[in-house]
Design goal:
Layout (H helix, E strand, L loop, with lengths): L13 E3 L10 E6 L10 H18 L3 E7 L6 E7 L3 H10 L4 E6 L2 E6 L11 E5 H4 L8
Antiparallel strand pairs: 1-3, 2-4, 2-5, 3-4, 5-6, 6-7
Length: about 140
């Protein structure tokens, strides 16, 4: 792993969905458009950014599903999107929406990766754990 640091909260994340999709893709990104780590935006600004992200996803035509990542410690939550798209494009989209990092789920494992500025070396994937075990009870398939 490189010397790049991740906010500790990234490794404590839990997820919830208003409803489960019929099936999760084998690999997908989880992207939000909410305030970048360390910043605070108004609810209206976060919602407007989320709407712009949803519009971009619809324009791409990729499968996407509403998912919310939240902290079990302080309750902070950010609505986002599970999106079936290539990892490099997901990082690029994260950068476009001023994200520090995004999640990547592949074969049931969840990872976090930085959305580095263009021109920097590609970010590594840092392991977070089992996606299903981080999906709230009642919203997962055991």
């Amino acid at each position: 792993m490189s010397q790049r640091t991740y906010h500790p909260a990234y490794f404590l994340v839990r997820f919830r969905c208003p409803a489960l999709p019929p099936a999760w893709p084998v690999s997908f990104a989880i992207i939000t458009a909410w305030a970048t780590t360390g910043e605070r935006w108004s609810a209206a600004k976060n919602q407007a950014a989320d709407q712009r992200l949803q519009t971009r996803l619809q324009g791409f035509g990729f499968w996407h599903w509403r998912i919310t990542g939240y902290s079990p410690e302080d309750g902070h939550a950010e609505e986002g999107w599970a999106v079936k798209m290539p990892l490099d494009l997901a990082r690029e989209l994260g950068r476009e929406f001023h994200q520090d990092a995004i999640y990547w789920v592949s074969d049931g494992e969840c990872w976090v990766t930085k959305c580095l500025p263009e021109g920097e070396l590609e970010s590594e994937l840092a392991p977070v754990g089992s996606f299903q075990q981080r999906l709230d009870a009642g919203f997962r398939k055991d």
